[in-house]
Amino acid sequence: MRKIYETVITALAAGLLIVNGVSVVTEGPDDSTRTAFGTSDVNAAAGGTESAGDTESVEDTQTSGDISGIGSLIAEGTVEEAGLTWKLDSDGVLTIGGDTDMKLYTNNIDMPWAHLSAQILSVVIEEGVTRIDHGAFRFAENLESVSIPDTVTQIGKSAFGDCASLTSISIPDSVTYLGTDAFERCYALSSVRISSNLTVIPEGAFSSCRSLTEVTIPNGVETISQYAFSCENMTEVYMASSVTEIEGWAFAYCPLENIYYEGTEVEWNSIQIAGLELGLFNNEIADAAIHYECDLPQAE
Known about the structure:
This protein is of the alpha/beta class. The chain has helices at residues 2-14, 39-45, 265-269, 283-287; strands spanning 16-19, 22-25, 73-79, 84-89, 93-98, 122-125, 131-132, 145-147, 154-155, 168-170, 177-178, 191-193, 200-201, 214-217, 223-224, 236-239, 245-246, 258-261, 272-273, 289-291. The strands form five sheets. It has a seven-stranded mixed beta sheet. A four-stranded parallel beta sheet has the order 13-15-17-19, with no helix packed on it.
């Protein structure tokens, strides 16, 4: 035991500990942000057995200086199975790089940066990453902005769920798959740009995004799934003529006032809208004014 604590003290003096397979930079004794470690973390730092599920290997960690000209390094790691690297700096910028998919984890708490989620303010995903996995950033409650490159083709289930501070999202046209509840309960989300190569907006994709007051459904989208836009303050929808099906409760609880439809009235009447004729499931659509042959807003 004495040897273990001597090892830990040495690691602290060097400004570096390994926590759950992740290299973490610690500041000097006068810094109030020094990281606290539990017993299992101390054992791991001292060369003990790592807990099950630790899969990422650790790169060399810098203890000072700039990373990509931003802030000083807080933590970094490598997920060997996925060929990904990640690093979090003192400005709250989480940068993820690699030429492959994110590793498939069973839930967000297994993500290597999960224990640092409260410190993440911005996510920068670099060119080459092709998939944002299930729950990748879920519960990053202070996350405000995300940059997604056009190499990404899939965004998994609940990938950004419960990111309550996220204000806007631009889903590039390279994305062809969006998982259920991908942006659920992003309370501050007020601006959304949807990929034109999505054919389905899935169940709960933007559910409970209470700051979202309008949305544009681009050409290419064919199906709007149930609860896709269950947004209590959404009043305006711009909809492409490519839409052929609107499932029940697609706009549940939305106080819709206007739907600006790209196609003709005949085309609108050919859309399969669940329960509309029976006054069920899509009363929000029935209560809105439908405007035909409207131009869609230009995507930014």
